[in-house]
Amino acid sequence: MNDTIAAISTALGVGAISIIRVSGNDAVTIVNKITKNKKLDKVSSHTINYDYIIDENEIIDEVLISVMLAPKTFTKENIVEINCHGGIATTNKVLELLLINGCRLAEPGEFTKRAFLNGRIDLIEAEGIMDLINSKTETSRNLAINQLSGKTSKLIHDLRQDIVEILANIEVNIDYPEYEDIEVLTVSMLSNKIVDIKNKITEILKKSENGKIVKEGINLTIIGRPNVGKSSLLNCLLEQNKAIVTDIAGTTRDCVEGTINLDGIIINITDTAGIRKTDDIVESIGVNKSIDLISKSDLVILLLNNNEKLTDEDIELLNKIKDKNYLIVINKTDLETKINLEHFDTNKIVFISALNNIGIEDLKNKIKEIFNLEKIETSDLTYLTNARSISLLKQSLNLIKDIKKGIDNNLPIDMLEIDLKNVWNLLGNIIGETYEEELLDQLFSQFCLGK
Q1: Within a 13 Å sphere around the CA of 47, how many CA atoms are in the beta-carbon half?
Q2: Looking at residue 179, which CATH number applies to its domain?
Q3: Cα four-point dihedral sign 45, 46, 47, 49
């Protein structure tokens, strides 16, 4: 990290301004080389300075230059940000001059990576930055802000502190048993402390399932036989005519997607090809994609016709989703009822008429009920949302459960101490107290260039 990096931090295109960010020990020196007044090395930190960017004697742009000196910067290195007029040619020219004069083009996410490596933020806060950039709803924005502010990190720090106190007590009891003024860690006391940690981790994991929903949304797939109204239902939910609707069976041959915002949560809806046996090669591919989507969905809607008796294909579809989170939606309630629903779970049935836009609000309310969306909306948004972090926390919980079993089976405390140290290390991996270089490369490569 001894070199100085540069990148365009704003979206490339025509706009009012573009920002080129430079970070590193030589940031001020390099930028000073391409300014007309050449006074950046004399200005105070955290100031904005009017100048011109020049290429030898040619003026490239009239700019404002922010100078921020280490350590009070995002990367804890010297940072210079050049605010130039928006436009592809001008912005690229300024970046080109920086690279010619000693900067290296930053890798995706490298500014944030340096902030982490220099101790400015931890991994949870770094992931919060990415989530904030990608947030599509007010709820996901609030969730990202909590991660970025350190509130979520504090949950993990507090757990590690609880474990450190237990480990310290164990070490003192083992190494200095002759001291009478130390607290003797009995099996009963250790058991209570472990149960307390287990409960805290369980609660965080429970909330983190909600966090994943807030961050990624809910993947909802509409399935059913041809001509039951899947495309019409999609259009009703989206409140736009996105999918083609006809009376011809097999009109939808590929998946049609759309999103809605339901109480601050993104619902990713997929309308699938009608599932049936067919000799049409193109339609067959669509049917196979529809079946494959069932396993990847958070919620499956099986759409049935109110004016038709159940078919063997309907029963087969119901069997495919019985182990999934699903709803049965009965369409065409404006027509004569012929369907027999006596063997269905009434709590999973919603009646609609997609043609007349009847029952759509009931369906939305049912979705909110299934995922407790109203509770998520009003609760504390201090969760883990990253699959990596949640996986590590689940591993920690399993080890804590093993420790509790070991206590119940009278295993020696020094053996339990090994597992407890492993939990402490796993929690450290979540916030980046311990890490592998390969992990960092993979994580920060997902960031946009210039962040």
Answers
A1: 11
A2: 1.20.120.430
A3: positive
Q: Which of 122, 155, 186 is the last residue of a domain?
A: 122
User: For residue 449, what are the contacts with CB-CB under 8 A and spacing of at least 6?
Assistant: 7, 8, 106, 107, 108
359-418 pLDDT, tens per residue? Answer: 999 999 999 888 887 666 555 666 777 778 889 999 999 999 999 999 889 888 778 888
Q: How many CA atoms lie within 13 A of 53 on its CB side?
A: 24
Identify the domain boundary among 95, 122, 149: 122
Instruction: Indicate whether 237 and 321 sit together in one domain.
Output: yes
- Among residues of the chain, what percentage have pLDDT more than 90? 40
Place of tokens 């260039």: 449
Q: Tell me how far CA of residue 419 lies from CA of 149, 166, 202, 267, in angstroms.
A: 31, 12, 18, 40
Strand order in the sheet with 58-68: 47-55, 58-68, 79-85, 17-23, 5-8, 104-105
Tell me if the pTM is above 0.85. no
In-domain check, residue 56: yes
Which stretch, 108-117, 169-178, 229-238, has highest mean pLDDT? 108-117
Instruction: Please name the amino acid found at residue 443.
Output: L
One-letter amino acid at 374 equals: E
The amino acid occupying position 20 is: I
CATH of the domain at 251: 3.40.50.300
Domain count, the chain: 3
Instruction: Find the domain containing 162 and state its range.
Output: 138-213+383-432
Residues 199 and 243 in one domain: no
In angstroms, what CA-CA distances link 224 with 249, 261, 396? 12, 24, 41
Is residue 376, in this structure, part of any structural domain at all?
Answer: no
Pairing assessment for the beta strands 58-68 and 79-85 based on DSSP bridges: antiparallel
131 within domain boundaries? no
| Same domain, residue pair 31 and 116 | yes
- Phi and psi based region of residue 5 (left: phi greater than 0; alpha: psi -120 to 50; beta: remaining): beta
Looking at the domain assignment, is residue 309 inside a domain?
Answer: yes
Helix crossing, 387-408 with 123-134: angle to 10°? 140
Q: Dihedrals φ, ψ of 56, to 5°?
A: 60, -110
Instruction: State the Cα–Cα distance between residues 396 and 298, nearest whole angstrom.
Output: 25
Among residues 280, 299, 306, which one has the least CA distance to residue 228? 306
79 and 195 co-located in one domain: no
Tell how far CA 22 is from the center of its chain. 28
